Amino acid sequence: MKFISIAQKDFKELIRDRRGLAMILLFPMFFMLVFGFAFGGMGQNNQPNMIAVVNYDTGATLPGTGEQVNFGNNLTKVLEDSTYPDSDVNLFNVTKTTETDADKKIKTRDVDAELIIPPNFSQSVVALITSTIQQQTTINPPSNVTSTLIIRGDTSYIGFGVSQGILTGVLGQYQDKLMSEIRNAFTGSPGVEADTYLQTRVESIPGTGSFTTFDFMAPGMIVFAILLLTTTVAAALTREVEKGTLSRLKLSKMTSFDLLFGGLIPWSLIAAAQVIILLTVAVLIGFHWQGGLYTLLLAILVGIIGGVASISLGMIIAAFARNDRQAANLGTLISVPTSFLVGAFFPLPQVVIANFWGQPFQVYDLLPWTHILNALRSTLTFGGGWDTIAYQVGWAVLLTIILFIIGVGLFSKNRLRAEN
Fold it and tell me: What is the pTM assigned to this prediction?
């Protein structure tokens, strides 16, 4: 039976092509792991919602006792201690910070929402207590005793919608519990409406009122395109080895650095062109580009850095690939999952491993493209200038230099010196 012989032949070819077989088997596995990690919670049903709390409350004096209280601190503690029903998982992962930093964390998706507690929050609670004691029913109280809690975030982001809904519910429960305790303390007093003194307002951070999900995803598509340079560069370098081009170039006393650093120039220009072309297409189909020409120039600079990182990764792959086909397969196997791991298509859960200069450093931040993506979003989506991306660019440059040194070293050792 000839078909058995053919089957045996094809099976042996599959086994011999170990890298191709790994591509077939591992590629779907990477996608399953990434999507499971992002959306499945790694086996956990409930996940804390990331919120920032900005507490401006200056405190107040309780009537009768003269005790100094700060209900802003009390509310923050309630948020920190709140858990899911029948669970020990916290509802919120609370970051206490400033308003400027909270807005920045909203833009980089480090938090889903921020709660701003006004300076007169405690005064409003004390006024509520006093009115309950005196059984006042003032409909329009003085403005200086009416406080408004502000829930702020990117209203186009699904994470904000979820966190805002849960946060509103918890604030409502806090208000109800507060009124219940006041009424229990002063038996027979009907009290007053808490809304007269305590109010809540939802608002978007500046510049995000008309944003869509695509406005957050467009920079991710640019990073994805930059990462795909890895496949092209790896295949091109491997092809140069196969054709013997490197052997001829070495006769001119060319060094490994000359070859690889010289290759950065055209490929970096390709990365810059990708930023311009994809941004143009994105704007044409509805991307709300912020900041004008200045942010475009910053984005091009950031794109070039990302391109160099992708070229460096391509060098590493080319150092081990046997031919251009294997190089292309390996490049795809590595670059596509990497684009998911850096958050190009959807935000990933926080996995903080350290803090540098007051900034959380996550496991994804070990990849330069994570910082490239954050910088592109900061400047193109939110219109930020150099001061808003300097931290991300600094990390991207450092990690890219390390990746380039590794790429040059491996390619030189495995491809150039091997031909001597």
Answer: 0.65
